[in-house]
């Protein structure tokens, strides 16, 4: 939720910046234009305004107004760059200064017939393009009053021609028409500019999201042009093709097999996909081409077949586990009846042969019953209830419990811990894992004191907690090390071969890992714990 709020806040800030830039950048251009006009007028009157028909009536007034207009233009330009506040007020002050300065220049040049009034049209058009709302009508009204006042002053004080009012009136009508037309046009332009910038921001965000998704995909992705040049790829594609640093920019150098398939696909081959084998790692990769529909680029998807096969095996094992658990449940009832019947048969018969046969039946039914119980235990791995608890306290209590049934356990098992160590695990599952490991250790270890060691190495907070189970027995033969975790593999005559398999499955169900190490003469198992189990369980519970 916090990340979503942060994203919305950043998006709103970006929208506000786009809106500010949309209105203020035209004002900066307008201010720069004003600076150029003021510079032109001052230069023209200084070098000789008579030739340009400006300032002919009052050159001194025209020169001083040009100087003041240039200074005001510089201040307005700096204000548009540095002080982005009160947009309407700033624009109105600038337009008013334009109208007053240009009207005075027009007066100094002989009135409306001088042509300076045309510059007021430019000012009103510019204000209409960048302005907001009804302020454009105010600007047109201000210009109209200014030119009418100038003409009235000329008629009353300078004996001007009264018929010029008609020309001034037409000019005033032009002011309003220019302002309104520019406002309508400017509103559409500003809306389109704001929309374009907003679409640009959204497109940039979408591109970043797409790049992040492609980068984190488990499958490899290559974007290739018609010439076989790689335009884009994710790290997984480089890893699947064993391409080193992935700096090769052409398929032919990155993977000749893939380049050959790509060329055949572009030539019209109907093969929708193909399998490639990496010469370095021997990894089998499935490649599939698809037209992107933009710019003639082709998308090449790479899929690790080893991962696909592993997922398929996992699904098969899960289905087989459920089937086996159901069969074990159904077998248990008739098995109990057979065991009970064998006990009754042994009690009723006086024949030694029949008693021996009944005992064989009983021993085998007990073995089958243990196997059924362990198979049913596999169905409980998905019902893990991990919790935080102290590992050293748990191990001490476990040894005390084991010593009740085996008095030598307390003497033969040595516990070594660096102090209080917290782990996240299902207590019942950890009890089952340790029971399976210690049963094997007690069976193969010597009767000496401390023949079996439970050790928790010292560590820093960055490393996971480890538990080592070590015995001084003969160890596990090299040819059997790769099979110890396989189901139904056992070297013990009465064993079921499910103990270590169940132990590893229960560890994985709690986010831990059970490994067999080969750095001791005897058997050496290591459990590596993780805190992910509690976090994952809490997330599932919250959802």
Features:
five-stranded antiparallel beta sheet, Beta-Lactamase, 4 domains, five-stranded mixed beta sheet, alpha+beta, 12 strands, 543 residues
Structure description:
- The structure is a single chain.
- The protein has helices at residues 2-48, 59-82, 87-108, 117-130, 135-157, 164-216, 235-240, 251-254, 256-266, 305-348, 352-378, 391-405, 409-412, 427-444, 499-509, 532-542; strands at 220-224, 230-233, 273-277, 284-291, 298-304, 387-390, 413-416, 422-425, 452-455, 466-471, 513-517, 524-528.
- The radius of gyration is 45 Å and the shape is elongated.
- The chain folds into 4 domains: 10-207, no CATH class; 218-305, PAS domain (Beta-Lactamase); 308-378, Helix Hairpins; 384-542, Heat Shock Protein 90 (2-Layer Sandwich), CATH 3.30.565.
- A 5-stranded antiparallel β-sheet has the order 2-1-5-4-3. The protein has a 5-stranded mixed β-sheet with strand order 7-9-10-12-11.
- The chain has 543 residues and is of the alpha+beta class.
- Strand order in the largest sheet: 2-1-5-4-3
Number of strands: 12
Globular, elongated, flat, extended or rod-shaped: what is the shape? elongated
Percent range of helical residues? 55-70%
| SSE pattern, N- to C-terminal | HHHHHHEEHHHEEEHHEHHEEHEEHEEH
Distance between the termini: 14 Å
Secondary structural class: alpha+beta
What proportion strand? Answer: 5-15%
Question: What's the average pLDDT?
Answer: 78
> What is the domain tally?
4
- Major β-sheet, in short? 5 strands, antiparallel
């Amino acid at each position: 939720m916090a990340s979503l709020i942060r994203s919305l806040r950043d998006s709103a800030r970006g929208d506000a910046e786009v809106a500010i830039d949309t209105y203020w950048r035209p004002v900066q251009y307008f201010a720069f234009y004003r600076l150029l006009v003021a510079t032109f007028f001052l230069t023209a009157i200084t070098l000789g305004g008579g030739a340009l028909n400006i300032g002919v009536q009052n050159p001194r007034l025209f020169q001083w107004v040009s100087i003041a207009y240039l200074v005001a233009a510089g201040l307005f330009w700096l204000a548009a760059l540095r002080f982005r506040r009160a947009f309407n007020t700033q624009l109105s002050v600038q337009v008013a200064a334009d109208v007053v300065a240009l009207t005075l220049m027009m007066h100094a040049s002989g009135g409306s017939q001088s042509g300076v009034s045309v510059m007021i049209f430019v000012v009103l058009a510019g204000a209409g393009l960048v302005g907001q709302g009804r302020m454009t009508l105010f600007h047109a009204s201000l210009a109209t009053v200014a030119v009418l006042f100038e003409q009235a002053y000329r008629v009353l004080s300078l004996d001007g021609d009264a018929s010029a009012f008609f020309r001034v009136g037409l000019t005033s009508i032009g002011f309003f028409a220019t302002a309104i037309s520019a406002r309508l046009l400017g509103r559409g332009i500003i809306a389109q500019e704001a929309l374009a910038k907003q679409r640009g921001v959204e497109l940039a965000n979408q591109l970043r999201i797409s790049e992040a998704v492609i980068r984190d995909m488990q499958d490899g992705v290559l974007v290739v042009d018609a010439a076989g040049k790689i335009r884009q790829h994710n790290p997984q594609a480089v890893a699947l093709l064993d391409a080193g640093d992935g700096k090769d920019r052409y398929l032919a150098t990155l993977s000749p097999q893939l380049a050959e398939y790509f060329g055949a696909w572009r030539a019209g081959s109907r093969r929708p996909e193909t399998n490639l084998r990496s010469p370095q790692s021997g990894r089998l990769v499935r490649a599939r081409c698809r037209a992107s529909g933009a710019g003639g680029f082709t998308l090449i998807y790479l899929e690790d077949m080893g991962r696909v096969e592993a997922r398929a095996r996992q699904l098969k094992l899960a289905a087989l586990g459920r089937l086996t658990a159901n069969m074990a449940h159904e077998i248990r009832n008739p098995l109990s009846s057979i065991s009970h019947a064998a006990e009754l048969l042994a009690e009723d018969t006086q024949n030694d042969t029949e008693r021996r046969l009944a005992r064989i039946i009983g021993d085998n039914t007990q073995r089958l019953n243990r196997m059924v119980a362990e198979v049913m235990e596999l169905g409980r791995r998905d019902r893990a209830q991990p919790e935080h608890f102290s590992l050293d306290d748990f191990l001490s209590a476990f040894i005390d419990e084991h010593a009740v049934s085996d008095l030598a356990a307390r003497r033969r098992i040595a516990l070594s811990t660096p102090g209080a160590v917290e782990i996240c695990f299902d207590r019942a599952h950890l009890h089952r894992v340790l029971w399976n490991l210690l049963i094997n250790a007690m069976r193969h270890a010597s009767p000496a004191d401390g023949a079996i060691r439970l050790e928790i190495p010292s560590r820093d907070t960055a490393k996971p907690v480890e538990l080592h189970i070590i015995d001084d027995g003969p160890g596990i033969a090299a040819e059997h090390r790769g099979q110890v975790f396989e189901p139904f593999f056992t070297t013990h005559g009465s064993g079921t071969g499910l103990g270590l398999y169940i132990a590893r499955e229960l560890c994985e169900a709690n986010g831990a890992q059970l490994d067999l190490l080969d750095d001791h003469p005897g058997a050496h198992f290591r459990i590596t714990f993780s805190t992910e189990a509690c976090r994952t369980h809490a997330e599932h519970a919250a959802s």
